[in-house]
Amino acid sequence: MTTDNPAMAEALRLALLRANPDLSRFDPLPRIISHDDFSRGFCGWSQLVGNYEDDLDGMLPGYAQHTSAMLSTLAHWEAGSHGGMDSSYALKLASRPKAGAQNVTIKRHTFRKRGPIRFEAYVTFKPEANELNLSETDVRAFGIAFDLQGGDRDAANERVMPHLRFLNAENGNHVQKWQFKTETTPFKTFGGARSPEAAKTVSHYHLSSEGWRDLPDGAQRLCYNEIPTKVNWTYLCLDFDLETMKATGFRCNDRVFDMSGYDSIRIKAMKNLWCMLNFLFFVETDSDKRAFLYIDSVCISGDF
Amino acid sequence: MLPENITAIVARNERWTGEAASEPYEAGWAREAVIFVRALKDPKGPQPQIHAEISPDGMRWLPEGTVAVMPTTRDGIAVLRVKHFGNWLRVTARFAEGSESTVLVTLHAKA
Fold it and tell me: Is residue A2 scored above 60 in pLDDT?
C-alpha cells in the first residue's frame, strides 16, 4: 500500500476492512497473518501433543489427556444446531468428563519481524448439557496463550508464554474473573538425561493449575444465557509486542483491561524454537462433565 | 476448494479395560469416516469386538452396525468404515475381566 499519504492509505485500508463482511467485525493491524472461520475447515488449529522419547508413556498427564478439536454446528439435544456467527460451523474444543480435565488446540507459525501482533477471536463456552439445570459453574475456565521465542541472533533471548484465562468457576463457586500466570512446572527430561541442558527432549506443563494470578480489576460477568444450550459469542482481543515481549492491551466485549500488571511465563530460550509464534486456546472443566469451548472465528494480525 | 478431510486422534495411549469408549467426536460435515484402532502394547487376554456407535446428541449412543475385532498383537490395527452417521461418532469395546489393550484410535473423516 502506498505510503505517500499515510492517512489516506489507512482510511482506505479501514474502508476495505469494514466493507468486508468476513473481516468487518475485527480490528486487525495492517497485515493479516491468518483469518480463520471454521466453515473453511480447521484452518491449522491442531491438537497439542506432549513431548516424548521412545514411547508415549512418559508424556506428562496434562498433555496425555488432550484430544483433537472438531468442527461443530453446536448441535444441542433439544434445540438442534445453533451454528456460528455467519456460517454453520465453529471449532469445538472438548475436555474429558472429569473435574480438572483440560484440552488445548494450537496453531503454529513463526514470525518475520519482532513487532506488534494482535489476536482477535469470537468464542463461547458451555458444559455438556446432560443435566436439566443452568450448569453455569460447571466450566472452570477457558483461555488463550501464546508461545514465543526470539530469533536465533537476538540478544537476551527468552521463551515467553503469555497466558490469559477467564476463571468462570472454581470448586462450584461462580468466580468470573481474568487471570494470568508466570510459572510453569519443573522440566521433565527424556532419554536418561540428568539435566534439561543435557537432554535432547524436555517437557513442562504450562497450563497446570498452580500459579494463576488475578488481572487487576479483572472481574467480568460474561453473557452465559439462561440454559446450557443457549450460547452467545464473546469478543476477545489480546495485543502483544514481540519486540519487548510484553502484552500491550486486552479487550473483552465492552471492557478494556489494564495490562500494566500483567506478565508472562518466561523461561530460558530453547535450542530449536527460534522465531516461534504459536497460539493456543484451552478449556477446563470444574465438574465431572465435559466443558466445551467453541471458537467461531480468529483473526491474527501484525504490524510489519 | 478441495473437499475437507481430517485425521483426528480420539484416543492416544489409553489403557482400555471393562466398558471402554473413545471420546465423542462431531463430524457432521463428513460423508464418510474410517476409524483405525491400533494396539500400542501387547494386548492382554481375549480381545473383544469393537463397535462404531452413533448418537443424536453426543450423550446417548446406539450401535451403528459396523463391527471389527480388536487387534490381538502389538501394532495390530483394526479398521471400521462408516457412512450415514449423522454427526456424532465414537467406538466402544467391552473387555472381559483381566483383558485389556492400550490403544491409539484415529478417525479419518472426509467431506
Answer: no
Q: What is the CATH number of the domain that holds B35?
A: 2.60.120.380
Window 10-69 of B: residues touching A by CB (8 A cutoff) are 10-13, 23-29, 40, 56-59
CATH topology of domain A28-302: Jelly Rolls (2.60.120)
Q: What is the mean pLDDT of residues A95-107?
A: 98
Which chain B residues have a beta carbon less than 8 Å from that of A89?
29
The three three-digit cell numbers of residue A243, written as one number = 519486540
Q: Is A81 helix (H, G, I), strand (E, B) or coil?
A: strand
* Total tally of structural domains belonging to chain B: 1
Confidence of residue A156 (pLDDT cuts 50, 70, 90): confident
Q: Please report which helix (H) or strand (E) contains residue A231, including its range.
A: none
Place of cell 479395560: B17
User: Does position A52 have pLDDT exceeding 70, yes or no?
Assistant: yes
Q: For A191-223, b where at least 16 C-beta lie within 10 A, e where not — what string?
A: eeeeebeebebbbbbbbeeeebeebeebebebe
Q: Is residue A226 packed enough to be buried (19+ CB in 10 Å), middle (13-18) or exposed (0-12)?
A: exposed
The residue segments making up the domain with residue B42 are 5-110
Residue B10 has its nearest CB partner, among A68, A76, A129, at A68
8 Å CB contact of B59 and A130: yes
Sign (positive or negative) of CA dihedral A53, A58, A63, A66: positive
